[in-house]
Design a protein that fits this description.
By secondary structure, this protein is an alpha+beta fold. The chain is about 45% helix and about 10% strand. It comes from Letharia columbiana.
Length: about 290
């Protein structure tokens, strides 16, 4: 008969979904046979973690290095001025400097002023004790390179505020005092007054007596009230404060007023004290 007969093989060859057509197409072969592009390998965990470790170690070394010099022992700043300075000029400049500070904390500046005064008297031990009590650190031991408070704030002072230059010029008044001191008269008067005080033979007239209220730094109170002659020097006040406060022989006292350590060899009035004002008795155990 005239009908056509197809076989399964013929259907498979003519079908578009036959395996031969699916894998025999040239484009399919091209896609299949194209080489795969190699992507760069990500850095290994060991490599990527090395840098933070190195950075952390370096930061640790830097912190340790800073810590080793964080609070060096205090020392005197020695320098030579290029211009002429007299002692009275230096005193005025220091007073003006500390009175005009607007940055940092006022109590830190007041403490630094006291310490500068102690350094001028050569009392490094007491100066260091005050710095330690106020948590003030001097990384290099020299104020010229700055000091830091407990919060890390920097406090800097110029050289002429920190100390007198080696080539300081004497004022006319200082030269007169120096000449008077050469004959030993002032020393003799002081020695006589000290002996009278020790023996209890010093007689004070009512009109020449003042009452000084002293606030001791090593206790919460009460204040001690000391009768003192107007012509008696601060050293006598120190001795009476020690007696009144029943201090042991190891206790050392410095009298401070308005943020300034007073000189032992001068009277209160000569150093700006006004009657009725309280003085601070800074107590140190040595």
């Amino acid at each position: 008969m005239g009908c056509c007969h197809s076989t399964p093989r013929d259907e498979e060859e003519s079908s578009p979904y036959s395996p031969s057509n699916a894998h025999g197409d040239s484009s399919s072969r091209a896609i299949t046979s194209a080489p795969t592009q190699q992507l760069p390998e990500p850095p290994s965990p060991r490599t990527s973690s090395q840098n933070p470790e190195i950075s952390q170690r370096s930061r640790t070394r830097r912190n340790l290095a800073l810590g080793e010099q964080f609070n060096a022992p205090l020392r005197l700043h020695i320098w030579t001025a290029k211009t002429q300075w007299t002692r009275s000029q230096l005193d005025r400049e220091r007073q003006e400097f500390f009175d005009t500070r607007v940055t940092g904390h006022a109590e830190i500046w007041a403490t630094l002023k006291v310490v500068v005064g102690l350094l001028a008297d050569g009392d490094i031990t007491t100066a260091q004790s005050i710095l330690d009590a106020a948590a003030i650190t001097v990384p290099t031991g020299d104020f010229k390179n700055g000091a830091y408070d407990e919060a890390g704030n920097l406090y800097q002072m110029p050289e002429h505020v920190i100390s007198d230059p080696q080539n300081v010029v004497l004022d006319q008044q200082e030269e007169i005092k120096k000449g008077e001191g050469s004959n030993g008269a002032a020393d003799d008067d002081e020695a006589i007054e000290r002996k009278r005080e020790e023996k209890g033979k010093s007689v004070l007239k009512t009109g020449d007596t003042i009452k000084v209220r002293a606030r001791l730094s090593d206790r919460g109170g009460p204040d001690v009230v000391i009768p003192l002659g107007k012509d008696q020097v601060v050293r006598m006040l120190v001795r009476r404060v020690q007696e009144e406060a029943n201090m042991t022989g190891n206790g050392k006292v410095k009298i401070a007023y308005m943020g300034k350590i007073l000189k032992d060899t001068e009277t209160l009035q000569a150093q700006g004290w006004r009657e009725g004002h309280v003085v601070n008795a800074l107590v140190f155990n040595v």
